[in-house]
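Notebook entry, structure prediction.
Reason for the run: the old model in the group folder had no record of what sequence produced it. Starting over properly, with the input documented here first.
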Amino acid sequence: MRECRYVRPATTRQHRAARAQQRADAERWRRELRPRAMRFIASRTTKLTWTRALLRLLLDELQSEDDLFFEVVGPLDRIPPKRFPQAVAIALALRHSWLQSDLTRIANRLRISLTTKELLGDTSHSTGHHDVDSAARLGRVKALRFAPTPTSGAHGLDTALGRATGRQLRDGRRNPRTDRKRR
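New structure, fully documented this time:
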C-alpha cells in the first residue's frame, strides 16, 4: 500500500510567501543596507591602528588556530606590534599551505622565493647565540646586563645567582682553577 502525503495548499502558500519575503529582504540588504553599513564602518575606522584585538580578529577570521602558527610566531600576547604584519603573513601562508602549489603561489605574492632546494637544503647550520631562543640570550646575566641600575645601587643584584662577592661577575661559567691563578 502506497502512502499518500497530503500537503495543505495554505501551508505551501505560506512557505512560498515566507521564502519570497526572505529573498526580498536579502536583496534589499545587498542593494541598500550593506553599502550603507560598510560606509558607516569605513567612516568609524579611519584612524584605526594595529592593535592586538585587531590582529586577533583577523587571525580568527583566517582560522589560524594551527599549532604550527604558534610554533613559528609564538604566543600572540608576546608579539610586538612591529611584527603584526609578519603574523598576518604567516597566517595567510598557513591557510594556503595544504598544497605545495598554493603555498608557492601565496609566497610569490608575498615576494618570498620558495623553492624545493631551499626547503630540502641543509638545516644543520645554526644561528648560535644570535638565535632568539638561544640560552645565551635568555640567561639571567644577559637580562641584568641591559637592565638599568637601581636607584639604591647595584650591590646585591647577583645574590639570586648565589655568587654575591665584592668583585665583578663575568658572563659565563665559573672555573675556580683559573680564578685562583688570576688572583
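Summary: The radius of gyration is 31 Å.
The old model has been moved to the deprecated folder.
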